[in-house]
């Protein structure tokens, strides 16, 4: 059995890779759709004809980073590290990238960009480092925008033991499962008129000896974009 489980073709987004919220088609995720529409409503009320962008000084309170790795002991810490270190097959990432040429050397965890930001194919150590560094950089930056920019990244990693574990059609016995989850959003940081949000998860199944049996969740990421 391949360590990396393929996604259903219906899960792959269009080549643009993003749904724009401008009174056009909604993103497929209800949670992201409601969040984007709520933000769009507030902005529509705040921006009036003839309004000009204003200067916003650096404000760390508007840019938050939360990283939580839940491990009971060194063994679980090693499992989390291994789950984050596992790289997706480069050929699979390139296939998802289509005509976009990816680097030939080094880890490649993203498959495209949106608003100049890398969009993850796999939730790896490099992906977590990228988004935490990005939000921290926004916290130190001043902006000229119509409304105050904000950004957020929340990352959690946890380990659970299972006598029996099933994921979709795959079944396992006597395994430990590491679950990685990252939520990211930025509103008017990358550009002055657009926001972007996504949630990405990765599930890594280990046998009793600590060998990776399967990885689920790698693949294209739904990334709705709000434009004002």
SSE blueprint and pairings:
Blueprint (H helix, E strand, L loop, with lengths): L19 E2 L8 H17 L7 E3 L6 E8 L3 H12 L4 H8 L12 E5 L2 E4 L4 H15 L3 E3 L4 E18 L2 E18 L6 E13 L5 E5 L8 E3 L1
Parallel strand pairs: 1-11, 3-7
Antiparallel strand pairs: 2-6, 4-5, 7-8, 8-9, 9-10, 9-11
Radius of gyration: 19 Å
Query: Which strand-content bin applies to the residues?
Result: 35-45%
Which percent bin holds the helix content? 10-25%
Reported for the largest beta sheet, the result is: 7 strands, mixed
Mean pLDDT: 86
- Total domains: 1
Q: Which oligomeric state applies?
A: single chain
Order of helices and strands: EHEEHHEEHEEEEEE
Number of helices: 4
Principal-axis shape equals elongated
- The class by helix and strand makeup works out as alpha+beta
Total number of beta strands: 11
Distance between the termini: 46 Å
User: Could you list the spans in which at least 5 consecutive residues all have pLDDT below 50?
Assistant: 6-31
